[in-house]
Amino acid sequence: MRYLMTTKPSDTAPDEKLYAEMGRFIEELTAAGVLLATGGLEPGGIRVTSAGDEITVTDGPFAEAKEAVAGFALIEVRSQEEAIELARRFRRIVGDGESVVQQVFGP
What we know:
Elements: E1 2-7, H1 16-31, E2 35-40, E3 46-51, E4 54-59, E5 71-76, H2 80-94, E6 99-104
Antiparallel strand pairs: 1-5, 1-6, 2-5, 3-4
């Protein structure tokens, strides 16, 4: 089962200890074949909305930038419980904040 884990931005600046811990965590998940992709996202983005035949494109940043997704990890695990445990481990490393875990459907 594949899961997308996303995280929102934090007010805390990363330090060398955080980088080292995250590096070890990423290496572990990669070696286990669990981590499929990871990355950070630009804060602005582009919003594309549709209503009937009208398509609107709006450049960011948007008013609630703190609600935007700052980064992601795509993982492949055996169960939702395993995905949640990996998200817990991630939160223990990065500290206070919010992450969302969603199952990815399709091929």
